[in-house]
């Protein structure tokens, strides 16, 4: 503001009120012209300007106010041209980022470089931060966006400013662009932030639609593998995941169960991190995964409150067989044992097919004649474990061979079975194993 001081306040109180009015009007500086009315800047004005932080400039009498106005206008015009040039360059860079293979992360990185601010895209599920920039914890960012209430906000604090802009829905959650800076943001930078928010909104919408198409193709791919049409399944897989390598010749089926919302969350996370055929049904999350990718996938599944059965590794054309073994393994899971593999239970395949309770009931009935006869049970166990080798049984029990033969004969008669019959030996093995599984 330029003033010749004509009609200026006379008292200290009036000068203070004058400076307060200038501050409320967002005047950044007062150019005070000394001359006929004031030979120098009033001391009361100096005091009030210092107290309120108003920039005060003394303008000599010989300096033309019109010339000052023109110079300021020229400076403002030059600044506007420079800002427009910088904004155009920034917008071009952001548009290029939006057309990259990973538009969300690239836009965030570019905006961080342009504004020199800590930048992140925040949802309830994940945080995409600019590379190389220190980012606050996910908890702090979530607390920040909760104050947004679907509207743009700017929070000021002694440590810097925080800007939050709503963008669009991402993976079923509201997404927000968050910037935290300790430096003042120029007007062209704020325009670049608005451009970024629009580009992120467009990219998020496109990403969501592509994800829907990919998941539909992925589910169809899994169905084709299970039906035995591996050739068509591989073609569908290449459409769903064009940048992924070909699927390994052997795969394992994973079946997960749990709360429907938890299954849906896991479905989206697995899709984000793995290029594998997967399908979400009403009560299952089904996945086909190469054996070398299994540890990482199971680690990701462990982040969710789900129980998972891992099937046998099979050739692609035998995917349905792996699915059946996965379902059997899933039956052995519990809230305290959330992941069970087929390999863990396949050493006792008959036990996997029959419930433990039913198996013990059957075994007690089969071995009823030996109930309480620990010597007979130990002898029969040694006989089965050595595959009927009398010499080895005698060595393990410390009995004479003839004694072993006599006692085994008595045991066979008591149980009403022929110990030389392979079927009888299988029944005996199953019964002894069932009673030991306690």
TrEMBL record:
Pfam families: HTH_30, PucR. Residues 1-75 form the Purine catabolism PurC-like domain. It comes from the Bacteria. Residues 377-434 form the PucR C-terminal helix-turn-helix domain. InterPro entries: CdaR-like_regulators, PucR_C-HTH_dom, PucR_C-HTH_sf, PucR_dom. Transmembrane segments: none annotated. This is PucR C-terminal helix-turn-helix domain-containing protein.
